[in-house]
Write the structure tokens for this entry.
Amino acid sequence: MEYEAAVKGPLKLKGTANKDIQKKLKKKNKEKNAASLKVDQLADIKESELKEISDPLKFPDYFGVRKLFRIKDLFDARIHYGHKDGTLDPNMKPYIFGSRLGHLIFDLDKTAEMLQDALNFTAHIAYRGGIILFVSHCPQHTLTVENAAKQAGEYAHAREWDFHIFTNSEKVYNGVTRLPDLVILLSTLNPQMQEHTAVKDAAKMCIPTIGIVDSNSNPNLITYPIPGNDDSPAAVQLYCNLFRDAILLGKSKKPVEVY
Amino acid sequence: MAVLRELVVFPSKCFRGVRSYFFSAPLFQNGSLKLNESVSKDGHALDFEQSDTKKMSKAMKSYMERAKIHDNFIKQQLHEYNIGKRHLANMMGKDPEFFTQTDVDEAIRYLFPSGLFDPRARPMMKHPDEIYPKRKAAEFDVNGRPYHSLFYTSKPNYYTLMHDLAVKFKQLDRHEDKIISRGIQNQKPTELFLFGSEWIPKQKIENVLLESLTDAQYVNLIKTFERFSQHPYSVIEKDFIMQFRRQLAAQVEIQQVPELMRDESGRPYMTYNARRKTSNATVKVIGQGTGVISINETDIHFFQREQDKKQIIFPLQFSDMLGKVDVVATVDGCGTSAQSGAIRLGISMCLRSFVNAETIERMRLAGLLSFDPRTRERKKPGQAGARKKFTWKKR
């Protein structure tokens, strides 16, 4: 049923199912648009009033990231394919729909919801000029990830991970450097099937992470896990496109206050 | 190497360096509300620098300090170098205005003679830019955001190169697909000819990329290049590949064959002093001859043994000059075998001037033009001879 609804139209967030709330949102958006970007007008309005009108955090989906994908897109990109029964990490059980012929299948409804949260978060970070780092260790997807980061105007590390990048950054970069404000992991495992060091290190440095967790990965240390397939090139391409679009959406809105 | 620098795709912002922040402060780009910070109570605009440093990130601040220190250091070194050059010129009695780097090197070699083997260990006085390694320009802007997309890999230039290789690989694949789809199957692409050149060493690549690489990373890069150059259509990217190859020195030095000399009667001749073991032979081969051989003013029968006579005749026979040239040789020292060997080498070396390049090459391959370095091996103490040991007794 939910799949049918998604096919008919864009997936709506639970909070905005109510028509009244939608009307209020439309009104707010109108007000926000009217109040933007003319210096003379801005000078008349008080700063505090402006904040209230156009604080992006007051909206559930300020940048409209839910329009970026449908569940059908996830299905076509084979995001619902997990690994085999025996490799299931117990922490991933809630996100698995079941298994078919020994292969685990993800529940795309849950994936879609969590993906929306993650994209929304990404857009907000980009809006505030945060540094976003795409991380992946799979050599097959290096080019895809690096290209997506370049197009989004953000950063990528799709190569062999140096252990001291976050924790001993002064030594590695020859001086004080600004660390990323968000780490997006296209795969939380390295080629040796162990947890990627970035997961632990980002948690140590209090950097929020978004991670695509496959059925054999542990989502516990990741701030916004997205259960789904991380091995197919089509799946990785879709994720990269979605994150890139979310970042560009976030950057397209001009911030009222510069941070 | 300047060519190689252009190769790596640096975004132009990388080299804007410290001064970039003066001209592109994002604070003043959009219509922000922070106008009250930029305009003082009098209505005059505040000092640009002052308002900017307030919002500058910690990273940028620390970079600025380091850059300042480095710039001052280089300035100081340059000043010292210029003053030192003038002092040197005065010491050597030359004009300080026209004292070049070669003059400086000569002066240093004269004033500080060094017996050290490695030229890099000897005293030198060079421009600071040649001695102190160049620094990478400011890698991030006012807000601490790096310019390069791969900054967090800590080796952005190296990984950009790897990235570009992958991109080019895909382009070649697409090109191949196009040609196959057009059905031009018989058309074989011209092969990339890499003979006579080798991949540039790790040090050179490090100098180009301004980054240090581990051995594994260098090996990985070369392997990638190898794979890339093995693509059937890699000829398209020949220029790109050849920028990472250097020509090998010719393995066989082309020896200069001496020109024929003329004697009083006008006959061409050539002389050579040849050695074999401890015997010396002075051989003169005279053209327009009838095959007269004279050794120490006697016939070829100077040598009693068949083997020695054959040695003398072999080079003439091989190069087909048996009845066409005369040989006059004087030889002394050692024994018959060594003497005949010396004369043989002498004749071969002289014949080079009489024959064409192909024959010279054939003679070289036959071993006629190689000096025989074998000498008698010394006797060692504790042994009966050079190799012979005394009788081994079990007990």
The two ends of chain B are 69 Å apart (CA to CA).
